[in-house]
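step=encode ok
step=design start
structure_in=
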């Protein structure tokens, strides 16, 4: 998904792009570990394995670096999750595809959720990143709501469950998973596996439940 703003600081050349991505990854890690206000260009450069002076060739200041990192996450994650849903046919398959793609994204970008939580909590107001984050969530919510609406049309919802209630439950589940990824990234993958079983109805052995 595009947020309507350009991704800043993009240098020319393959080597420059590789360095830029390394800086982006280091920014995610640094902000997720110490927060927005305490993250410094010097520390980000250290994590990226370069000097502060070299980093300034890619990003003119901390604000632009943080904003570029945020936009990079948005440009990667939402399109991939949307494509995962669109590439599957049935409602359950769509949900499983989104869960699987979310799991892959968290493996590839383990600091992304914590980075997002940090900037939502304390980023400078002029960056408007908290508002941007809400917009990204809204775009993803539309994807998930569309899946639940399909379930309603196909008569796949349980007795007494309407589309709005089911959509709210699934969206709350996804938001909870996102927060879990920020707080406990090491546990996220096992939790996602359990969530998939829950949605499939196989998390519990119902023959033993009374």
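sequence_out=
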């Amino acid at each position: 998904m595009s947020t309507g703003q350009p991704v800043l600081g993009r240098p020319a050349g393959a080597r420059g792009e590789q360095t830029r991505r390394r800086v982006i990854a280091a920014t995610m890690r640094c902000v997720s570990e110490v927060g927005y206000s305490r993250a410094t260009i010097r520390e980000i450069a250290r994590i990226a394995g370069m000097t502060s002076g070299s980093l300034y060739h890619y990003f003119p200041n901390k604000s632009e670096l943080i904003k570029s990192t945020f936009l990079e996450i948005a440009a990667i994650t939402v399109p991939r999750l949307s494509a995962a849903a669109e590439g599957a046919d049935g409602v359950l398959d769509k949900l499983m595809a989104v869960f699987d793609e979310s799991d892959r994204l968290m493996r590839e970008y383990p600091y992304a959720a914590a980075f997002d939580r940090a900037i939502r909590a304390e980023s400078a107001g002029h960056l408007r990143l908290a508002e941007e984050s809400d917009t990204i969530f809204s775009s993803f919510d539309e994807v998930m709501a569309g899946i639940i609406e399909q379930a309603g049309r196909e008569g796949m919802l349980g007795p007494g469950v309407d589309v709005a209630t089911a959509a709210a439950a699934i969206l709350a589940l996804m938001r909870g998973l996102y927060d879990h990824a920020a707080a406990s990234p090491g546990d996220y993958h096992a939790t996602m596996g359990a969530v998939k079983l829950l949605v499939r109805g196989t998390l519990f052995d119902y023959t033993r439940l009374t």
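step=design ok
step=annotate ok -> Residues 62-86 form the longest helix (25 residues).
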